[in-house]
Amino acid sequence: MSETMVKPGTILGFLALAIAAATAGTWFYRVRMVDIPEDRTLFVICFLAAAGVGIAALVKGAGKLGVLPALLAIVVGAFLPFTIAISEQQVATTGVQVGETIPHFTALDDRREMFDSKNLAGRPVLMKFFRAHW
Questions:
Q1: Residue 23 — φ and ψ, nearest 5°?
Q2: Using CA of residue 74, residue 134, residue 30, residue 49, what is the dihedral sign?
Q3: Within the chain, which residues score under 70 in pLDDT?
Q4: Domain ranges of the chain
């Protein structure tokens, strides 16, 4: 009678993918809520842990079933720390406060048409600028 044994590397591969998926899911939920933490250390640690466990899975010998989750965890786990490392984000020292007049600016909008802030004069406006992690 032969028993089918799951290799330890396969279990680690799925664990790595679970860590990567949970961390990425939390990260993108916070991005969607525009609630990215200023200190992203915990996210970096979790992403790197997912990549590390993925590498350990491959070293331990993940079976055919465990290789893909391990590789996905490595890619996902390395992406955020890599983007943070290659592009430091500058935080403005001054900003427009509630009730202040916004400075004049022009930019392309989401329809690739020119937007001019002068067109907003005399009307209350809520402006929301998105700050990503890269």
A1: -70, -45
A2: positive
A3: 1-4, 88-93, 128-134
A4: 8-86
